[in-house]
Amino acid sequence: MNDATPEPLAMTRAQRRRRILQGTDATPESPATPEPPATPEPTPTPEPTPTPEPPAKTRPPAMTRAQKRAAAAAEAAVDPVPEMPLQPLVTIAVLALAGLLTISAFAGPVLVAVSVALAAGVIAWGWSGLLGLPSPRGTAFVLASGSAAAIGTVLATNSDPFLTWMPAALAGSMIIAFLHQLARRDGRPRLVESVASTITAIAIVVSGASFVALPRTPQGAWVVALGATGVAVSALTDMVGGSRRLRAWLLPLAMLAGGAAAIVVGVTLGGVGWGPSALLGVLAAGISHSIRRALAMLPAISGPRSQLVSAGASVLTGGVVVYVVGRFFLG
Asked: Range of 309's domain?
């Protein structure tokens, strides 16, 4: 259903006039317009405090040309030879081993083999501690096996050439060194360093085993004595290694002193010419000093065991050089 919107009732004429009169007399007031809210006055921004300027740096006085050259020379100056610490135990041990080797050379190859084996045993005992190698027991076993093989083959060879089986002993020792690395169960840390250090020690011992064959050659005992003299005198020159002025001249000083001492011993006692004597003394002294100088830079050299290892290595390293020079000049 649609809701019907009721129509407004019709007004009379009097009602219409009254409404018109009311509309002209009273005008409806318009509603007051609300005033807008007062805008707050902006807060004054404080002025930034001026940062004080840093004081001007004072320039250093200009250097003269001589001062500039001196400063450049001081900056460019590099000590080519590091400091060599004093090691009295190394010197004493080198003197003892060199003297034992000299005395045993006149007694025969067997006692020379015992002397070399003593030095090789010291190296096998402390080589791992000197270089900080992993698996010290295995390394000691490898070095002991290589020493026994090298010394044994030279001692067992009675005919010339006396070093004919030396390469075989060296190769077998290297195979044992590699097998030792394969048998390790510690993850094989520092593998390359361990192999290289072990083979280096084997080479030192094999070189020293050459002394065993010299007493069987003509004037071989004096060849050993001249080489040992050069080694002993070079160890004495190490005592001046604390001098900064002589530090860079230690190697030439050792070679010069070793050659001079070998000449005195060879000419006055052994009847050996001054040329072969000087060459043997210079080479033995230089090689011995070089190996001691290299090992002196290791952190563990301060220990007595490491110093004994350094002494043994410095005596044995030049063995093959002394053998070759002695055979070439003295037969």
From this structure: 88-330
